[in-house]
Write a structure and sequence with these properties.
Pdz3 Domain, 27% strand, alpha+beta, single chain, five-stranded antiparallel sheet
């Protein structure tokens, strides 16, 4: 399912409902643990709140507890005046804590820890359900066998790769010597049991070489022999707006190559290929991945290839096919500007302005801004997606731009200072100057087409609940550790807020099994984070109680209150920082969606196999 834009997210009843049920339910379970433990230990309970801040609605129970839903959906609390002074966070208490009976150290520790305990129990129960019904994963994810190692990968502007404008670098895995068919045994001394663990181990890696380049040591099995290969992962941009970058090794899992229905008159149809045929090899080379097959076709060009095909019933047959080599996209325009050593590329799409008018000149070709690669913050607000380049200053006069040819002629290939005049659909107009600007001629990537799509499969895995839960907990601790590790590329801004959680629930909503798995993840994360020894959190209550028990007078009530207020301020600031970057991440996702729509409408072209050539 496509990612939600921020606007869609706010108006999505489905997303809000899923968060209310599963994320809100996880918070409820946590607070229920505190509540039941406090009741069992005889503590005074004033409020049971889901969320912080002013009350939205609720009721007062016969037990005198104020059960409420509060306005800020960033957690919840059970107000226990005997446990800690939290007036600044939970609101004023109806009774002074000093007038209530003192509670024991055991009471404080048990009540504080039971929220996390209930989250763990809930997560384990859901993991047991997944153990019985199975968890769907992408084909090849349950194995550690490498299916494809690309010679080059895209590190940014992935939408532009087909246009010949993507930022390409040598594939880290291929450069290091990893190959299709290798079985990964361990990464950085951590044993691997599935492909997702491999990707995560590289992403969370913290090793570097003497030149401060990131490294990851792979222990693999090839032809029955074990060997170690040191890979230098590339940093890949996930989101242009938030600046999220992660380490990748440039490898993909092993998958079957299964074709769909061949297009009429396509090479696949002419060769006699049928829907659901499984291609085992090409010219004697075994296949381990669909992308690997496409790349081998591209390298061979428009020459006959021999495919070994397995059909329904296990019958194998050889098929001779001759691909048709062409591009899958129409060309675009680009202007290079800025630093000559590291220039920016302004990408422009040729589009047709389609408006209702009797004037034939009203419907004309124009050039629309698609993006800048790499991102240029100085021009991001001015040259945003959809802006029309109306005119530029040519060598002798201002020239109207209506086509790729107009632009190439007016800009030229000699670097100069270029004034560009722009306009938008809302009537806004303006101009700006690009230094060292020149036209760039980039040709789209050519492919060897056979005229069929490929079928993606999913697999069901039945992981025992201990394996599921322990893996998540280990990953959570590793991620937290990497936040303070200079050797890591993991940053605080990459943590998820309630916005990302809502988006994830929405995107997983078509399969309840994936929703359950994500809820297991949420609950175990809540358990770990709440047990951190930070004042305001449950672990902080336990730390303060322990210090007060084994020391005399170091932490009196006044000092505890100051600590609570200070760390609450820090925690809210951290949440605001994470939410800010999540909003930027949503904006980047919206841009990516818009770019995909523009490409589908104006750039991607349907394959035509009617030609006899």
């Amino acid at each position: 399912m496509d990612n939600l834009s921020f606007g869609d997210l706010l108006s999505s009843i489905k997303g809000i409902a899923l968060v209310a049920i599963f994320f809100g339910g996880s918070i409820f379970v946590h607070e229920l643990g505190h509540f039941l433990a406090a009741r069992k230990r005889g503590l005074k309970i004033e409020r049971f709140s889901i969320g912080f801040g002013p009350r939205l609605f609720g009721w007062t129970g016969k037990d005198g507890v104020d059960y409420r839903i509060s306005i800020i959906p960033l957690g919840g609390y059970v107000a226990l005046p005997q446990l800690a002074e939290m007036e600044g966070i939970e609101g004023a208490s109806s009774e002074e804590a000093e007038k209530l009976p003192k509670i024991s150290y055991a009471d404080k520790m048990i009540v504080s820890v039971m929220g996390a305990v209930f989250n763990v129990i809930f997560a384990f129960a859901l993991a047991c359900i997944l153990w019985v019904i199975g968890m769907p994963v992408a084909e090849g994810s349950a194995s550690t066998v490498i299916g494809y190692v690309p010679e080059q990968i895209v590190t940014s502007s992935g939408h532009l790769a087909e246009l010949g404008l993507g930022n390409m670098v040598p594939g880290p895995g291929f450069k290091a010597g990893l190959r299709s068919g290798d079985k990964v045994l361990a990464v950085d001394d951590n044993v691997m049991t599935n492909f997702n663990q491999i990707s995560e181990a590289v992403m969370l890696g913290n090793r570097k070489d003497s030149q401060a380049n990131p490294t990851a040591t792979f222990r693999i099995e090839r032809d029955g022999k074990e060997m170690e290969i040191v890979v230098q992962p590339a940093r890949v941009e996930l989101n242009a707006q938030s600046g999220d970058r992660v380490r990748v090794a440039g490898i993909q899992p092993r998958t079957d190559v299964i074709i769909g229905q061949p297009a009429p008159n396509s090479p696949a149809e002419k060769a006699g290929l049928q829907a659901m045929d499984r291609i085992l090899s090409i010219d004697g080379t075994p296949l381990n991945n669909t992308i690997e097959f496409r790349e081998l076709l591209r390298k061979g060009g428009a020459k006959p290839r021999t495919l070994l095909v397995e059909r329904e019933g296990g019958v194998s047959t050889k098929v001779i096919i001759t691909p048709k080599v062409n591009t899958t996209v129409n060309p675009v325009s680009a202007i290079s500007y800025g630093d000559e050593a590291h220039p920016h590329l302004l990408i422009l799409l040729p589009v047709t302005r389609d408006i209702l008018s009797k004037d034939p000149e009203a419907k004309r070709d124009q050039l629309m801004v698609f993006g800048i690669s790499p991102e240029d913050p100085a021009l991001a607000d001015t040259l945003k997606i959809g802006t029309i380049v109306d005119k530029i200053d040519g060598t002798t006069q201002i020239v109207a731009i209506r086509s790729r040819e107009d632009l190439a002629t007016a800009v030229g290939k000699t670097a100069r200072s270029l004034t560009l005049y722009w306009k938008r659909a809302n009537g806004d107009t303006g101009n700006l100057t690009l230094p060292n600007a020149k036209a760039v001629d980039k040709q789209p990537t050519q492919h060897a087409q056979i005229g069929t799509f490929f079928v993606s499969k999913t697999e069901l895995v039945y992981r025992n609940p201990w394996e599921t839960c322990s893996g998540i907990v280990k990953s959570t601790f590793t991620t937290l550790g990497r936040l303070f590790d200079r050797g890591s590329d993991i940053q605080v801004k990459q943590l998820a807020s309630v916005i990302s959680i809502t988006k994830t629930y929405y995107n997983l909503s078509e399969d309840i099994r994936r929703v359950l798995w994500f809820t297991v993840l949420i609950n175990l994360n809540l358990a770990v984070l709440n047990l951190l020894p930070i004042p305001v959190l449950d672990g902080g209550h336990m730390l303060i109680a322990t210090i007060q028990r084994y020391t005399k007078g170091i932490l009196n009530n006044k000092a505890v209150i100051i600590l609570q207020y200070t760390f609450m301020g820090l925690l809210l600031s951290l949440m605001a920082y994470i939410i800010l970057h999540d909003v930027r991440r949503c904006s980047g996702d919206s841009d990516r969606q818009l770019k995909q729509q523009l490409l589908e409408r104006h750039v991607y072209k349907e394959q035509d196999f009617s030609s006899k050539k």
